[in-house]
């Protein structure tokens, strides 16, 4: 009886640890500061989608947002469909808070590359 209880307890602990490892060390999202720094004024929407790995969500006629697990990028396009002003900042989810509390991920400041030109 004691051996069976120890076996079940060991299995439960192993499952909990494996679940935490998957959550903490999950594959990276393409909406991140490194990807955002690749976005340059004058790029096309297709080039932005290639960097972020997916299409953005339409906000207005000439702006789109890319929501990642931990970051949000908003990009305005000019009348020619080229990148204009951009904004980028953290989305602190519960999991991001836990990773920050554990020291696995530092809290990064928002990267605000807004150039003041409103489309």
What this model shows, in words?
It is built from four helices and four strands, in the order αααββββα. With 119 residues, the protein is α+β, with helices and mostly antiparallel strands. The chain has a domain of 72 residues: Beta-lactamase Inhibitory Protein, Chain:B, domain 1 (2-Layer Sandwich), CATH 3.30.1450. The chain has a four-stranded antiparallel beta sheet with strand order 1-2-3-4, covered by helices on one side. A hairpin with a 3-residue loop joins strand 2 and strand 3. The N and C termini lie far apart (71 Å).
Q: In terms of topology, how is this protein built?
A:
Blueprint: H1 2-24, H2 33-36, H3 45-52, E1 57-60, E2 63-67, E3 71-77, E4 83-90, H4 94-101
Antiparallel strand pairs: 1-2, 2-3, 3-4
């Amino acid at each position: 009886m004691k051996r069976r209880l120890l076996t079940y307890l060991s299995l439960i602990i192993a499952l909990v640890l494996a679940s935490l490892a998957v959550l903490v060390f999950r594959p990276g999202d393409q909406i991140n500061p490194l990807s955002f720094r690749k976005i340059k004024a004058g790029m096309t929407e297709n080039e932005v989608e290639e960097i972020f790995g997916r299409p953005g969500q339409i906000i207005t006629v000439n702006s789109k947002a890319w929501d990642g697990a931990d970051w949000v990028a908003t990009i305005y396009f000019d009348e020619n469909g080229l990148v204009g002003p951009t904004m980028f900042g953290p989305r602190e989810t519960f999991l991001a808070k836990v990773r920050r509390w554990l020291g696995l991920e530092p809290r990064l400041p928002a990267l605000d590359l807004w150039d003041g030109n409103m489309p």
